[in-house]
Amino acid sequence: MDVTNFSSQPHWRHCYRNICTDNFVERKHSFPSPFTTSFKTHSRTKKITMSSEVVFNLEYLTRLEESARTLESTPQQRSEMMFKAQREVDAYLEQLSLDHPTGWVIPPKETQGQDKLVQPGQYQVQSGPDRAQSGPDRVQSGPDQVQSGPDQVQSGPDQVQSGRGPHETEPLPIQENGVSIDEVLRDFSRIGNEMEREGHPGHMAYVPGNSTAPAAIGDFLAASFNPYSLNVASCRRAVKMQQMIVQWVGRLFGYPSACAGNLTSGGTVATMVAMTTARDHKVPRSKDYSRSVLYLSELTHDGVAKCLSTLGMREAVVRKVPVDDKYRMDVNILRKFIENDVQNNLLPFLVVATTGTTDVGSVDPVPAIRAVATQYNMWLHVDACYGGFFVLCNSAKHLFEGVETADSIAVDPHKGLYAPFGTGLVLVRNGTLLRNSNTRQHGNYMQDQLTNPEDWNPEDLTFEQSAHFRAPRVLLPLQLYGVATFRDALQEKLELAKYLYLRLKGQAHIQVVEPVLSTVLFRIPGVSDNTNRALLREITTDGRFFITTTTVKGVLYLRVIIFCYRTHRQDVDVFINKVKDAVVKMELPEVEFCHAG
Predict the structure, then answer these.
(1) How far is Cα of residue 329 from the mean position of the Cα atoms in its chain?
(2) How far apart are CA 383 and CA 268, in angstroms?
């Protein structure tokens, strides 16, 4: 046999197998790579057959194994890494206090193309290896500006801008050779100085995300055990953990045991799974997509309409229904919209009610919307992403009347159950419809897997496959603390919202809207929007609080959401004093107080 030699490397001892003769041979040859194929030809009645000899380099394999075993950490290595990582976590969590001078957020705030920072706030402290500053409109971290996104984006209390600057601090690069755990953690920990600190008690903007220590441990365990959690055959216990969470949430809303659902990456994906089921059930033919109609309120979260494009229904019609004086969907107008669409040969297929609008915290009248949906054979979906887990609170249960009749529900454990970001949940009342829209047809490579048609695998209840094992981040905190702890934490936020409302209600120059859940809107009436934005800047100037504005029915309000589990009455008292001081500083004319709601 003639073996062609391409190598410039030293001679190694090689082993190879002659596939034709199945003889195992050991010889010395030089090759450029671990595998070399050679051929020998046999001439027999003018037929040419070829057999290959695969050359195997044992020494090369040994070197690969030695390198690969680096990934197999020892208990001592794991303990050292976890100890050092926990040290960084503790250093960050110490900053989640109203008394800590760095404030609720320290993103880099230098405007793109400018060399000069806008006047920072009163705090300027050392944080880590670089100086961190927080201020009213511009906050700097590190020696140079750090900006996110290719272009300028809005962030902060008053359209604070961040963009990609010429001296952006970059994360530690991906390199051919690794570095020490200390260097990795030192680089990662800088994120704490370049982010909105959503767990800060003064973070009262958007719908802040929070995470508990048991949830973080749950993620650690999920990543360490790393089961494929979407199929009973792969890990029945992981599937049962997820199903237990889904069924528990279903019972909270009054769903029957025949419901089905899944943990998702968030509320938008949960909504998309529900809308896919609605589409397949109500609009089975794609030729009807262009005349299908989706009905929302003007306060429905923007993620709902976004799902249409992903579902291939970009050409569907979207109707935004006005809200009434309580910021709830006006059912009379909804009915008129539907009647008009039916007369014009359109196909009403889906209406979305919200239990806890993001702007206001208002709750749509679900029973009345259910009646309309039933009359016109429409799917009713309830967006409970923000407000859903307030159903745990006895004082708020009446707000969820009728939700048990909805065809589907989306709710976010990364909001009301304080799980890490990336934790949504979808429920479909008739679980069979959800399964019909998502059942997986396994490839041939899985033909030997033992399956049971009676098993409801999570992979058959969502479009996701190979998803993260999300159950532990939800289940561990519930098991450790008990449901009562979460109920009390959520009830505290409802009470704090009422407390804030009542305190601001008696404040001169302030108009305040009575809260339904934990969101409070207020403003100075009779002045320009710019004056109210100036009030916002004054309140947030020292970085201790982060609130934003919103516009509802054409009126600009300052918006406060009390949702962080670290926010308590003493924090709200400080905020109230900040509002009072800001109003006094603005030297407004003396008027009697007024309030709305």
Answers:
(1) 26
(2) 10
Task: Look at residues 497, 479, 515 and name the one whose alpha carbon lies nearest to residue 596.
Answer: 515
Taking only the tens place, the pLDDT of each residue in 74-97 is 999 999 999 999 999 999 999 998
- Mean pLDDT, to the nearest integer, of 454-480? 91
Which residues have C-beta within 8 Å of that of residue 110, sequence separation ≥ 6?
117, 138, 140, 145, 147, 162, 165
Spatial separation of the C-alpha atoms in residues 258 and 7, rounded to whole Å: 66
* Three-state SS at 298: coil
d(CA 353, CA 300) in angstroms, rounded, equals 8
Tokens describing residue 131: 């100086």
pTM of this structure: 0.81
Q: How many CB atoms lie within 10 A of CB 590?
A: 6
Give the chain's count of helices (H) and strands (E): 15, 19
Residue 456 zone, left/alpha/beta (φ > 0; ψ -120 to 50; rest)? beta
**Is the CB of residue 395 less than 8 Å from the CB of residue 256?**
no
Asked if residues 134 and 106 have their Cβ atoms less than 8 Å apart, the reply is yes
Q: CA angle 516-518-519, nearest 5°?
A: 80
Is residue 149 within 8 Å of 121, Cβ to Cβ? no
Q: Give the CA count within 13 Å in the CB-facing half-sphere of 302.
A: 1
DSSP H or E run through 382: strand 379-383
Q: Tell me how crowded residue 1 is: count the other CB atoms within 10 A of its CB.
A: 10
Distance CA 397, CA 389 (A): 10
pLDDT, tens digit, for every residue of 183-196? 999 999 988 888 88
Render pLDDT for 173-229 as a digit per residue (tens, 0 to 9): 999 999 999 999 999 998 888 888 889 999 999 999 889 999 999 999 999 999 999
Record the tokens describing residue 228, joined without a space: 């494929």
| pLDDT score of 15 | 38
By C-alpha distance, which of 518, 516, 470 is closest to 496? 518
d(CA 373, CA 365): 12
Confidence of residue 446 (pLDDT cuts 50, 70, 90): confident
Count CA within 13 A, CB hemisphere, residue 522.
29
3-state secondary structure of 405: helix
- Identify whether the C-beta of residue 409 lies closer than 8 Å to the C-beta of residue 382: yes
For residue 459, the number of C-alpha atoms closer than 13 Å in the C-beta half-sphere is 18
| Structural tokens at position 43 | 């001439």
Q: Which one-letter DSSP state was computed for residue 24?
A: E
The tokens describing 107, both together, are 């993103």
Contacts of 482 (CB under 8 A, 6+ apart): none
Count of C-beta atoms within a 10 Å radius of residue 274: 30
By DSSP bridging, strand 260-264 and strand 424-428 are antiparallel
Angle between helices 331-343 and 366-375 (to 10 degrees): 10
- Check: CB of residue 519 under 8 Å from CB of residue 552: no
**What's the whole-number mean pLDDT along residues 339-367?**
98
3-state secondary structure of 293: strand
pLDDT at 23 over 70: no
The tokens 């589409």 sit on which residue? 279
Question: How many other CB atoms sit within 10 Å of the CB of residue 269?
Answer: 23
What single-letter amino acid sits at 568? H
Residue 254: Cβ-neighbour burial (10 angstroms; 0-12, 13-18, 19+): middle
Neighbours of 329 (CB within 10 A): 30
